[in-house]
Design brief:
Layout lengths: L3 H18 L4 H14 L31 E7 L8 E8 L19 E3 L6 E2 L12 E3 L4 E5 L12 E3 L4 E4 L13 E3 L4 E4 L13 E3 L4 E2 L14 E5 L19 E5 L7 E2 L11 E5 L3 E4 L11 E3 L4 E4 L12 E3 L4 E4 L3 H4 L6 E3 L4 E2 L13
Parallel strand pairs: 2-3, 3-5, 4-6, 5-7, 6-8, 7-9, 8-10, 9-11, 10-12, 11-13, 13-14, 14-16, 15-17, 16-18, 17-19, 18-20, 19-21, 20-22, 21-23
Antiparallel strand pairs: 1-2
Subcellular location: Membrane
InterPro entries: Leu-rich_rpt, LRR_dom_sf, LRR_Rcpt-Like_S/T_Kinase
Main location: membrane
């Protein structure tokens, strides 16, 4: 035997021992078994090492281009001493899971991310989750119901909270105002009612707020405290107008969507001069009157919807919005001739000027019944 052989044999033993050490503590393995049962996740193979991505196909499935909404990924952090691993992330999107949100999730002390998007999970968020250190929580498109739990306010590590497209009801708990690290709050498409609690003004790190398709009451919130917002969606949310002047402080805004405001008085077009990064702007059914202001500072604007208002005047100034592909101005009081640029758009652009007061002589004969 050559002298190199013992060293090679020793290296193989050490390497093999190291790989064997890359395992979860037994209590986390038991927790995963419980979580699988509670979710209705039947294809986890408990004989495989969940933290070995090379040999644990039931715990990790490569992304597929033909299934963009499917994700089956469990991620471990194995940088702890003595080769110990801990579960850090569970993403089970589009799995057709029909169980409940697992209380045993609280038995994974190092878990930071849980994403159960697009399943058939029912019930509500279990109180056991209050003790977790979750930073990312998404349960979008499930069948969850009941009030949004107050104890979510104790999960202070949360930076991302998405409860969209479920059946949550009742009011938004003021306790959510304690989530000082929260950047994304998404509660759209539920059955939420009442006024938005003033305690949410403390969420000064918010970059995304989406509350569309609910049944809130009261005035639109004051935006003064949310100066970092980049995306704001309040479509069909039940709020009353007018749009507050404090919206002008949202200088980082990229996507602004407000529609179908109830009651409230009419207002002029809000001051959006500082929103130079805007890409999508919707102020639909907001009881806005007056003329469209100069929007040329929005050089990245791609989508503009100002329909169902009382806006007057012409639209010549909109020609300079060179990147806009979708422009909806229907059901206003716009007048004057229709500019030639609006008539010469190609298939890459969609412009709707119907139901306004444009000069008939400038309107193509095929469109005159709607202008």
């Amino acid at each position: 035997m050559s002298t190199a052989t013992p060293y090679l044999f020793l290296l193989i033993i050490i390497g093999s021992s190291f790989l064997e050490a890359q395992k979860l503590p037994q209590d986390e393995i038991v927790a995963l078994e419980e979580i699988g049962r509670q979710l209705g996740k039947k294809d986890w193979d408990m004989k495989q090492n969940p933290c070995d991505m090379n040999n644990s196909k039931s715990w990790w499935t490569p992304k597929r281009d033909n299934m963009p909404l499917y994700n089956n990924t469990l991620t471990c952090n194995c940088n702890f001493t003595h080769g110990v691993c801990h579960v850090e992330s569970i993403v089970l999107k589009g799995q057709d899971l029909q169980g409940v949100l697992p209380p045993s999730l609280a038995k994974l002390p190092f878990l930071k991310t849980i994403d159960l998007t697009r399943n058939y999970l029912s019930g509500t968020i279990p109180p056991e989750w209050a003790s977790t250190k979750l930073e990312y929580l998404s349960v979008v498109v499930n069948r969850l119901s009941g009030p949004i739990p107050k104890f979510l306010g104790n999960m202070t590590a949360l930076a991302y909270l998405n409860l969209e497209n479920n059946m949550f009801n009742g009011t938004v708990p003021p306790e959510l105002g304690k989530l000082a690290n929260l950047q994304n709050l998404i509660l759209g498409a539920n059955n939420l009612t009442g006024e938005l609690p003033k305690e949410l003004n403390a969420l000064t790190n918010l970059t995304e707020l989406r509350l569309s398709s609910n049944m809130f009451t009261g005035k639109l919130p004051n935006f003064q405290s949310w100066k970092s917002l980049q995306q704001l969606e309040l479509q069909g949310s039940g709020f009353e107008g007018p749009i507050p002047s404090s919206i002008s402080v949202l200088t980082d805004m990229v996507e602004l969507r407000i529609s179908d405001l109830n009651g409230g008085g009419a207002s002029r077009f809000p001051a959006l001069n500082s929103m130079t990064g805007m890409k999508k702007l919707m102020l639909k059914g907001c009881n806005i009157f007056g003329r469209i202001p100069d929007l040329t500072h929005m050089t990245n604007l791609q989508y503009l919807d100002l329909s169902f208002n009382n806006i007057e005047g012409g639209i010549d100034g909109l020609q300079r919005l060179e990147n806009v592909q979708f422009m909806y101005l229907t059901n206003n009081s716009l007048s004057g001739p229709i500019p030639q640029w609006a008539l010469n758009t190609d298939s890459r652009h969609d412009i709707d000027l119907s139901y306004n007061n444009f000069e008939e002589s400038s309107v193509p004969s095929t469109c005159r019944e709607t202008l």
